[in-house]
Sequence to fold (196 residues):
Amino acid sequence: MLAAIRAHQLGEAALPRLDRDWIRYDDPLAQFTKLVESVGGRVVFIDREAEIESHLAELPAYQGAKQIVSYVGSIAGNIDLATIDDPHELETVDWAILPGAFGVSENGAIWVTDEQLKHRVIYFITQHLVLVLPADQIVHNLHEAYARLQIGTSSQGLFMSGPSKTADIEQSLVIGAHGPRSLTVFCVRPAAGLLG
Fold:
């Protein structure tokens, strides 16, 4: 049988060419918003980072929050990850407000790293996740995104898209079963100009 398999080996296929025009969008911010919302997230465009807290204050889940981790300058948190030795202690965090490096219009994903964070589990253990990124740091496609990655500059990096989701064989979709119940992306508009 192995001889028969060996006799039917396919020849090597040439790798695809990468020097081509990849997908670009007329309105990459609208596309990014559409994709984030299609996976259960929410995008809010703001002009200044200082507007974030007033937007969050309108949310009932934020109004009752007791534990907040914030690594965004204009938002005050009351949990400092640097003082936590056991990440299990973070299981009761209500909100984590963290910076995103850049977003991708093609799939609505946001690149995040653990460069500033002692416990990277905070992305997954918090009840509600907020990511903040400059609107002019949203690229059209994954090829542009990969060109931005600097491998080896942090111990972890990943693309996040939407809140936690899981589905069973009955096709019941559950939001937040294993991670954040919500994802809000605040995109801070640049003072002038957007994507090139």
Notes: Residues 28-38 form the longest helix (11 residues).
